[in-house]
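Table 4 source record.
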Amino acid sequence: MNRRNLFLAASSMIAAVLLMLILSLDTNASHNSTIAFGAQPAFASVPTAGLSDVGVSAYLDTGQTIDLDDLIGTFEIIEDQTADYIIGSVALPDYEDQQDETFHVHAYVSTDGWLLVYFMDDTPVSKIIDWKAYVNSSGSSITTLLELAMVKVAGDAGVGYEQPTYYDFRYPNATHMMFIGDFTEPADYDSFRIELPSSNTYYESSWGLYRPYQCCFATFWKIDGTIVIGSEINTGDIGWGSVDVSENHEHLIEINTTGGLAIVYKEG
């Protein structure tokens, strides 16, 4: 296997910063993406009914007036509605085969142009990775389910879509989240090594696993030789959960299907 070292810098400081998370990717199938968090959205500083359990989110201030009646058909379930806003859950395109509400994203839309899409605060960050899009790109790019939901909500609201700002309500001091994805062909496996320097503060590490292919093997996601998740993931399933990744120690992650790791942290 080819091996390469990457020194990942914050997206806003790439030219100036060389140290953040140190990775050794065993093959070119591995891909990483770092997203900088923004500030807490301004509307969220005011208590709003229905927004007490928000976890990782993406928001957009469109600056446009939105007619909430245009969005009635967008929501699978409407959880709360007033004359000023609507809150509910939105089904995702391309994830209808999941058979339940697991992949519904919650959304808040206000008449003064705010859009917020989010998962609840008990959801690991790794769940927001759009694994189907990752497989369709042959592992070349990582996007999120929150982006997918934002495109749908903004389109139905009739407002222009821009790249949203990310914020995790659980970790107000976090500055970044990083995704590491590993794409494999059927009946193959891949691995990468990661070391978390103690100069950062870490809030969450979580695994993700997707089995898009039907084949003759049991899936696994391992860290340092220990299976974290295995045969429970069937063909078409997507799984996620928390995993301990200690600092100042090189860890080996092994995956025999598509999957990866998410890290939430404060730089420096």
